[in-house]
Amino acid sequence: MSFSARIGLAGALLALSLAACASFDEARETTDTVDDAVALMQAVDERGAVGRANQGVDDLGAAGVGYEATVVVRQGRLTADGAPDDNTASEQHYTLRVDAEGDLQAALGEGGTPVMYVVPGDQPAPAPVYRVTGNSYACASADPAAAGLGDGLAGLIAAQDALAAAPLTLAVIAKPEEATVAGREATRHILASRVEDALRILNTYGSSEMLEQAIAAAETVTLSGEVAFDDGTGALLRLRAITTWRDQDRWAEFRFELTQWGSVPDVPRPDAAQIALPCG
To answer: What predicted TM-score, i.e. pTM, was given to this entire model?
Structure first.
């Protein structure tokens, strides 16, 4: 039985027991509250930000087309009033190119000469990550700047904890609207926290460990942002997530956006003679 189904069953039993000794109006109010709790859990189950974004990454890979994208990672301290302080921000800029075979090239840095990494797409995850210097390739799987690249886009999102706060804040995708990303028809959603709903339900409905954890986390953690998915394939085309940790006095922002869909040149892969330092 799924988590949401268990919540629904427990809620229904509670509603029945309370209704037996309450007035009709009280029973109806209790039933409405239980229905709200079930609906909230189903929304988190079905439209949870992490699960939906992960599915979008999988759909992007399954689309079988090459793409180019940009990724920006920013982090810093909070101001005295708890807002992100841009003056303390550090930034990393990645330009990603993934060809139709799944080979990935990542350029890290803006201006000057960026640091280049290549990840072969036909290797089991996590695949080896090679740093490119001229025509020479050296294993860089342990390079902090390349963290997560061996697992492709999903690994980069996970390595940057881009959606780590989503379960804590019961974040779901909401308010769909039409958008265009990289020339593709898409649907854009905001990342919406359901903690206020959880608090309202708890005040009326009673204890739920998951809801209590979310409310406790919301005292120090906030998450906002947006996602966009390709209408034709479900592929993730855009992700922006901004997280603040007030108890740690820090914030982080992750931005991913597709800039080219299809018609992407092949990523140059190293042959044995070019690998100065092999992985493994």
So the answer is: 0.81
